């Protein structure tokens, strides 16, 4: 939450623990539901995260009805991944290798992709949001992803 506020997003923390998301980010034109994952340990050179909802013994992957983004923080090396839920709905684990950014792993394009939540395609963002734009290498070019087109 501190990192998002530092970048200029409005941050809203829901009361209680009944929602599938940890907090909401306000970009000025949209409110984004965000699930946060983090770790300080590693398994070999990669980090693995469950991206699932558990209800008793049943487990299922998050969907666009639950959250908009999974934000993963890995310390060290202080790596942030901002992954739209449309990129993780095919499985319940994501594997990241932040120690080797050239690994070209499936989720490496989402490293520091905070601009996805302040994208001009969704409308004007808050003027105090200070995120580098990566439009020429946007990791969400897929037209089927709900993040590409603005809400009606």
Question: What is this structure, in a nutshell?
Answer:
The protein is mostly beta strands and 152 residues long. It contains one helix and nine strands.
Description of the molecule:
The chain is mainly β and 152 residues long. The chain has a single domain (2-136), classed as 3-Layer(aba) Sandwich (Trna Endonuclease, Chain: A, domain 1). The chain is 3% helix and 29% strand. It contains one helix and nine strands. It has one helix at 2-6, and strands at 10-12, 23-26, 31-39, 47-50, 52-55, 58-61, 69-74, 79-84, 93-96. The strands form three sheets. A five-stranded mixed beta sheet has the order 1-2-3-7-8, with no helix packed on it. It has a two-stranded antiparallel sheet with strand order 4-9. Strands 5-6 form a two-stranded antiparallel sheet. Strand 2 and strand 3 (31-39) form a beta hairpin. It starts with a helix and ends in a 56-residue tail after the last strand.
């Amino acid at each position: 939450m501190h990192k998002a506020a530092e970048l200029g997003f409005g941050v809203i923390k829901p009361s209680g623990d009944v929602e599938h998301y940890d907090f909401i980010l306000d970009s000025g034109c949209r409110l984004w539901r965000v699930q946060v994952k983090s770790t300080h340990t590693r398994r070999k050179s990669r980090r693995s995260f469950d991206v699932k909802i558990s209800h008793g013994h049943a487990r299922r992957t998050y969907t666009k009805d639950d959250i908009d983004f999974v934000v993963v923080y890995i310390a060290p090396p202080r790596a942030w991944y901002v992954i739209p839920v449309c990129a993780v709905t095919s499985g319940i684990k994501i594997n990241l290798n932040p120690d080797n950014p050239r690994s070209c792993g499936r989720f490496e394009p989402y490293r520091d992709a905070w601009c996805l939540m302040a994208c001009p395609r969704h409308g004007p963002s808050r003027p105090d949001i200070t995120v580098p734009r990566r439009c020429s290498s946007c990791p969400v070019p897929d037209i089927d992803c709900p993040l590409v087109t603005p809400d009606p």
